[in-house]
């Protein structure tokens, strides 16, 4: 059922490749890989890695939560406690918790890379650009907030972000082939005019490129088996990554209106990117490249869908309906 749905989407050129896994902590109900790493390229397979895009965000959120468990930071710390240059700015009162729940007041999609070509310049633009709204006043999905979370984690722990992801997520979870790029075995993403080539193995997100590819909002690559493994661990309660109370706090809704946990998105009805067939307590995250990881705690189930829907172009929104159909069908699996 799921294979046929995704094969049909490939025939309609929504993506050149897809991988999926649906199941519980105890077993897999459906999984597979289909298509080619790029149009006319070699087949995608079990070892092919996928640009997770914003699915990087909840992984970094787990790192932040793990550091909070160990006392390296508090979720209620204001920005300047870890990033002193923010003292005296309009962002000085923003807390780690507000960054995690997308209530910091920082703006949403902003192509800073167009006018800021170095990491230093881009980060300074985040620091100095006036906030459009006051912290805590509304939910607005912001990659800038997770860029700052990556910096906060590094400052609090005294280690680079990639080392923290390895220490607190990929190593204890057994995700042996997940990490920041470059990833030469990756499925291709966009035919990018800015880079003058089809992007394969470099992070798709342009702001992440300027920041060096290791940052809090995007940059991780993983094969299906690793994202599947992460889904199974989350469906079982997130051990050994987090204490039960910490995991519960992460997946609990903390906002009014749009449902946001700490680094996770809740099931918004209507408007959920994964449809409305999943349980009301479900949570997850999507990625711009066509990836997603979703979990239903009450059913102990996980849903992984990995595609390269931006290949060769990001212009189509056909993945929106495919995602909903996939999750609607997957929810019915027995």
Automatic annotation (TrEMBL):
Any GO molecular function: hydrolase activity
Listed name of the protein: Serine hydrolase domain-containing protein
InterPro entries: Beta-lactam-related, Beta-lactam/transpept-like, Diverse_Enzym_Activities
EC id: 3.1.1.103
Domain Beta-lactamase-related: from-to ranges: 33-316
Signal peptide per UniProt: none
Top-level taxonomic group: Bacteria
Keyword Hydrolase tagged: yes
Key word Hydrolase present: yes
Alphabetic keyword roster: Hydrolase
């Amino acid at each position: 059922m799921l294979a046929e749905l995704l094969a049909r989407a490939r025939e309609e050129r929504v993506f050149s490749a897809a991988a999926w896994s649906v199941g519980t902590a105890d077993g897999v109900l459906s999984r597979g890989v289909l298509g080619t790493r790029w149009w006319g390229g070699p087949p995608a397979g079990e070892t092919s890695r996928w640009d997770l895009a914003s699915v990087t965000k909840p992984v970094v959120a787990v790192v932040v939560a793990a550091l909070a468990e160990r006392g390296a930071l508090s979720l209620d710390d204001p920005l300047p406690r870890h990033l002193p240059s923010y003292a005296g700015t309009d962002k000085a009162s923003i807390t780690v918790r507000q960054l995690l729940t997308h209530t910091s007041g920082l703006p949403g999609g902003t192509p800073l890379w167009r006018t800021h070509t170095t990491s230093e310049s881009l980060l300074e633009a985040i620091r100095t650009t006036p906030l459009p709204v006051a912290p805590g006043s509304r939910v607005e999905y912001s990659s800038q907030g997770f860029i700052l979370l990556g910096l906060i984690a590094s400052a609090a722990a005294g280690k680079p972000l990639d080392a923290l992801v390895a220490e607190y997520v990929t190593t204890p979870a057994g995700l042996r082939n997940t990490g920041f790029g470059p990833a030469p075995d990756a499925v291709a993403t966009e035919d990018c005019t800015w880079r003058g080539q089809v992007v394969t193995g470099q992070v798709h997100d342009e702001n992440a490129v300027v920041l060096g590819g290791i940052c809090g909002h995007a940059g991780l690559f993983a094969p299906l088996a690793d994202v599947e493994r992460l889904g199974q661990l989350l469906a079982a309660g997130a051990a050994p990554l987090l204490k039960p109370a910490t995991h519960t706090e992460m997946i609990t809704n903390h906002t009014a209106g749009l449902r946001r946990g700490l680094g996770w998105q809740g099931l918004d009805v209507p408007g959920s990117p994964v449809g409305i067939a999943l349980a009301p307590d479900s949570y997850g995250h999507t990625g711009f490249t066509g990836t997603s990881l979703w979990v239903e705690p009450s059913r102990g189930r996980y849903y992984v869908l990995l595609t390269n829907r931006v290949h060769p172009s990001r212009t189509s929104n056909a993945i929106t309906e495919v995602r909903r159909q996939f999750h609607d069908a997957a929810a019915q699996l027995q």
